[in-house]
């Protein structure tokens, strides 16, 4: 009978212990916020992280559900917001970094000691601030010191019971940050921001969730002040994008470009952790116009389309990544398909990245392979490599466009006294390529930096690109004139320095402007400019060489504009004026 009572008592004790153990919260209960965590149990251990089955000290770190009224009183003067960002997407094997920044209520900020104070320079709706400090943690810490605080269970202890690391600046770490992902957690102290990096080798490909909870130091417990979450992506494809640009293209974002003008393709690989720094990277281009494939080691490429139409652009990037070698296995792992996130692909990638990867041989420059599997190659130099691939595909349209604009003649318009004091100048403009639909003139100071006047007009050109643009100048002096001709897909620019009405000192300033733009001999240009100044006192355009003769029709000269300096790729000769155009 006595033995039976002992067995019953033992059973009751075991049952009570089981009930208490079941009632104790675990990290997964607190950090999952109601989300199921069963799918993350198969993940390999992250370096420095702990499994979320560990118990959570709810007495020291209270857990509040969303909507709990206690959230309203967790911070003095308002609500704290946690901003969580990451540099995702991350190539598997690289690091992904998370940054949490706390945004305090209006008129509150962190001082040099990491105390939270009121900003005296901030205008508050109330009459004033009740105190200098929102939270003066320096005073609290000085009351106990490190030794006394660590001996007290209510200070300097994480939710799992581990003591805080004794950093040199531990007094300025009054927030506790708890990160949770793929069934594991990481805890650290900090100020108003915290940064955590994770190596993605053991993380399943695809989208993952990162959750962070932030607690502040309190007198007896730590108080929750904010939570945040965000999606990050781990991929076996090299993250990249391509920036397409073209001279005279009006809108690069519409994927419409100009025929017979080179397009620049600039590949940007997203690798913030510099995982690919020691890799050999190759770029294989197929421009889709029948010109064949082009392989380069440079991320920048140019191509000129000579036909109009729609073309499919394809790029394959291959990275040969050096890694430590493991023992060979007879059967290589199955490669994953582009963008695959299936369970088979995930298992293969994880096996490849393990400490015993499969070794196989792949042609070093086989850019035709669409796979991104982490298969390895044993090279003659004794090293091993992983091959990763990235892909880019887009469709672009090639149309006719304005390739070049030239000012071939400038003429000062003679005016009567009744027409006013403004000086009128006619610019005879021609262009190559398609016909323009609009013309804009920007008049600036001699440095071409400060705009003084902008005039845009629609133009109608039916036969050849030849038109006259008349513009007024209110005062004498030296001006930088930019003339732009455009259509729906393109626009081209030409520039010139002009001197109007022989303003005092304009001759010397004009010569200086030509020297900056063209770099001719000083003495030669000064002589030519003085001769022109004496002959044409009302209007003096800028010349480039002595071979440019004075036009007998009115007060005009040929000149070479500054566009040769602004756009050195354009060195074609000015077309000849064949007919008298209309005036815009």
Automatic annotation (TrEMBL):
**Amino-acid biosynthesis is among the record's keywords:** no
Query: Where is it located?
Result: Membrane
Q: Which residues cross the membrane?
A: 514-533
Q: Please verify whether the record's keywords include Ion transport.
A: no
Enumerate the spans annotated as PKD domain: 277-317
The stretch of residues making up the signal peptide is: 1-24
| PROSITE patterns linked | PKD
Q: Which family does it belong to?
A: Belongs to the PMEL/NMB family.
Question: Per its record, how is this protein called by name?
Answer: PKD domain-containing protein
Task: Report the source organism.
Answer: Mauremys mutica (yellowpond turtle)
């Amino acid at each position: 009978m006595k033995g039976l009572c002992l067995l019953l008592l033992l059973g009751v004790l075991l049952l009570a212990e089981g009930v208490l153990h079941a009632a104790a919260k675990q990290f997964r209960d607190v950090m999952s916020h109601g989300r199921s965590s069963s799918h993350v149990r198969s993940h390999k251990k992250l370096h420095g992280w702990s499994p979320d089955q560990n118990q959570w000290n709810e007495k020291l770190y209270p857990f509040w559900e969303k909507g709990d009224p206690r959230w309203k009183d967790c911070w003095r003067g308002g609500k704290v917001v946690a901003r969580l960002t990451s540099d995702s997407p991350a190539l598997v094997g690289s690091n992904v970094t998370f940054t949490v920044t706390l945004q305090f209520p209006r008129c509150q900020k962190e001082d040099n000691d990491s105390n939270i104070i009121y900003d005296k320079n901030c205008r508050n709706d109330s009459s004033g601030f009740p105190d200098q400090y929102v939270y003066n943690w320096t005073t609290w810490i000085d009351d106990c010191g490190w030794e006394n605080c660590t001996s007290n269970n209510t200070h300097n202890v994480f939710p799992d019971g581990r003591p805080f690391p004794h950093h040199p600046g531990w007094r300025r770490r009054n927030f506790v940050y708890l990160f949770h992902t793929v069934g594991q957690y990481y805890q650290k102290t900090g100020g108003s921001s915290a940064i955590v990096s994770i190596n993605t080798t053991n993380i399943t490909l695809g989208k993952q969730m990162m959750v962070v909870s932030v607690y502040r130091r309190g007198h007896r417990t730590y108080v929750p002040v904010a939570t945040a979450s965000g999606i990050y992506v781990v991929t076996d494809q090299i993250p990249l994008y391509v920036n397409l640009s073209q001279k005279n293209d009006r809108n690069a974002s519409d994927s419409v470009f100009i025929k017979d003008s080179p397009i620049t393709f600039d590949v940007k690989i997203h690798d913030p952790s510099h995982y690919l720094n020691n890799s050999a990277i190759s770029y294989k281009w197929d421009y889709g116009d029948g010109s064949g494939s082009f392989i380069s080691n440079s991320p920048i490429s140019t191509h000129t389309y000579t036909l109009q139409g729609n073309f499919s652009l394809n790029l394959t990037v291959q990275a040969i990544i050096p890694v430590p070698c493991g023992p060979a296995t007879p059967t290589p792992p199955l490669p994953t398909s582009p963008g695959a996130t299936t369970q088979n692909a995930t298992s293969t990638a994880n096996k490849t990245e393990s400490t015993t990867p499969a070794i196989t041989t792949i042609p070093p420059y086989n850019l035709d392979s669409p796979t991104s599997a982490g298969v390895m190659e044993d090279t003659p130099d004794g090293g091993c490599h992983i091959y990763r691939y990235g892909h880019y595909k887009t469709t672009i349209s090639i149309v006719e466009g304005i390739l070049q604009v030239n000012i071939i003649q400038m003429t000062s318009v003679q005016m009567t006294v009744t027409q006013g004091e403004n000086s009128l100048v006619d610019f005879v403009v021609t262009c190559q390529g398609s016909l323009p639909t609009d013309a804009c003139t920007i008049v600036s100071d001699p440095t071409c930096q400060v705009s003084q006047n902008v005039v845009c007009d629609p133009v109608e050109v039916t036969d050849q690109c030849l038109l006259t643009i008349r513009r007024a100048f209110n005062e004498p002096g030296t001006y930088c004139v930019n003339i732009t001709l455009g259509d729906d897909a393109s626009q081209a620019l030409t520039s010139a320095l002009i001197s109007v009405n022989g303003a005092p000192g304009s001759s010397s300033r004009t010569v200086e402007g030509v020297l900056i733009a063209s770099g001719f001999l000083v003495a030669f240009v000064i002589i030519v400019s003085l001769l022109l100044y004496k002959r044409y006192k009302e209007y003096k355009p800028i010349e480039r060489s002595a071979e440019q003769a004075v036009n007998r029709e009115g007060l005009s000269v040929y000149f070479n504009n500054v566009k040769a300096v602004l756009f050195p790729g354009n060195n074609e000769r000015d077309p000849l004026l064949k007919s008298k155009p209309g005036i815009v």
